[in-house]
UniProtKB/TrEMBL annotation:
Protein name: Sodium/potassium-transporting ATPase subunit beta-1-interacting protein
Superkingdom classification of source: Eukaryota
Subcellular location: Cell membrane
Transmembrane regions listed in the UniProt entry: 34-55, 62-86, 144-168
Species this chain originates from: Seriola lalandi dorsalis
An example Gene Ontology biological process: regulation of sodium ion transport
One Pfam short name: NKAIN
Main localization (coarse): membrane
Length: 194
């Protein structure tokens, strides 16, 4: 096995997916966006199972990872369309928070270079309320930051999909079988017949 084999590259891509999913999960928790939190959780589980399949030469786990990558690409395209207001979707809807809270993307108030102003109100002097904060200007608007997150996930996922297809094609069916009861046959030692 070379140092730049497809299997090693897929392991690297899975690790990169885990890191970016964890980063995305943190910011979704900060914004109380419950649908992405659940989807990111399932994504993390599927990537870990895919990573296990690649390391242990289990083609079924890698195929499951492949199928999840198709769903993950669809989710990221949906989120991109939502934030760009494409296809009748609106970034101002509470689809991502599942209608539970009025919170939006964490990046809306805390993006790079954002200047915010707290509106004066008699009853809310000492409490932080997102409805009473107005963002005046940002270096990069929040919807573009969210779309950049989706594009990064899409690129990593598509690369992972391509490498996983190749890795599955190199695994043999014998690599994915395990005999709990039978005898152990070591391929480098000839079997003795009496």
């Amino acid at each position: 096995m070379g140092c730049c084999s497809a299997r090693c590259m897929l392991i690297l891509l899975c690790c990169l997916q885990l890191i970016t999913a964890l980063e995305r999960q943190v910011f979704d928790f900060l914004g109380y966006q419950w649908a992405p939190i659940m989807i990111n959780f399932f994504h993390t589980i599927m990537v870990i199972l895919g990573l296990f399949g690649v390391i242990q030469y289990r083609s079924r786990y890698v195929i499951m990872y492949l199928l999840w990558m198709l769903l993950w690409v669809g989710w990221n395209v949906f989120v991109s369309c939502l934030y760009l207001d494409l296809g009748g979707l609106s970034k101002d809807s509470d689809i991502l928070s599942l209608g539970v809270s009025s919170h939006r993307s964490w990046w809306k108030d805390n993006g790079p270079g954002c200047e915010s102003e707290v509106l004066p109100s008699a009853g809310w002097h000492n409490q932080q309320n997102p409805e009473l904060t107005t963002v005046l200007s940002c270096w990069l608007e929040y919807q573009y930051i969210e779309v950049l997150h989706c594009i990064a996930q899409l690129l990593i996922s598509l690369l992972g999909f391509v490498y996983a297809c190749y890795v599955v094609s190199t695994f043999s069916d014998e690599d994915d079988s395990f005999n709990f009861i039978g005898e152990f046959h070591h391929p480098s030692k000839p079997s003795l017949l009496f």
